[in-house]
Specification:
This protein has 223 residues and is α/β, with parallel strands linked by helices. It has 9 helices and 7 strands; from the N terminus they run αααββααβααβββααβ. It is globular and about 40 Å long.
Length: 223
């Protein structure tokens, strides 16, 4: 009996290990092309919040830089996008990206689709649903893609019940209302792109192929 249980646990462990995919296996084209510079395209806003496109655009720069890539400043590229009618990224997400390589020298373009954005003030949650698509400006191929539905937890504990619980609810509502959309956007991006292979300016460049890759779609709550 004990042997059969042990055998079963061993089999489950082996299956779990077998199902684990490395970043090198999940994103082979990232390692083949090794993009150094990324241009961040204006987000494709699929929500009813008109302002989501502009504020989320500014949140993408820092998290991608922290992954070891040179990222063209959104403030500097915005004027070019508007003058070249590239502000509507919908026109380019499946189109020719060679102009961004020729004009800017970008190796890849990061597209994002904002699919949901909800604020629960009383519950202390900011929920963002975003898909990230990185395309090569050289080949036009998608070299990285991942989507996340991320809850940014802004709740504050008042301690105990009664009056303390009431204080906690009030504090949570104030904190959620005051939480900058940029902060929430950055946390969402950083979490979803956590398994993205790092760029040249990261110490682990060309050394993270064997690290585990995440699921293509994830749900999570982050503080």
């Amino acid at each position: 009996m004990k042997k059969s249980i042990l055998f079963g646990l061993t089999a489950l462990l082996m299956m779990s290990c077998a199902q684990q995919i490395s970043r090198g296996e999940q994103y082979p084209k990232m390692y083949e092309e090794q993009p150094l510079s990324i241009v961040v395209m204006p987000p494709i806003n699929q929500t009813e919040h008109v302002e989501a496109k502009d504020y989320f655009y500014t949140t993408l720069y820092a998290p991608i830089c922290e992954k070891g890539y040179y990222v063209f400043s959104p403030m500097l590229t915005m004027e070019m996008f508007q003058s070249e009618s590239a502000y509507d990224a919908e026109l380019f997400i499946e189109g020719d990206l060679s102009q961004f390589r020729n004009v800017l020298g970008a190796d890849a373009a990061m597209f994002t689709k904002i699919k949901s954005w909800k604020r629960n003030t009383a519950g202390g949650k900011l929920t963002a649903g975003v898909e990230y698509i990185l395309r090569s400006t050289k080949t036009g191929e998608t070299i990285y893609q991942r989507e996340g539905l991320i809850n940014v937890d802004t709740s504050i504990s008042g301690g105990g019940g009664g009056f303390g619980a009431l204080v906690g609810v009030i504090a949570t509502a104030i904190n959620t209302a005051a939480t900058d959309k940029v902060v929430a956007g950055r946390k969402c991006t950083a979490f979803v792109l956590s398994d993205m292979p790092v760029g040249k300016y990261d110490p682990l460049f060309e050394k993270d192929q064997m690290k585990p890759a995440g699921k293509s779609y994830i749900k999570a709550t982050v503080k």
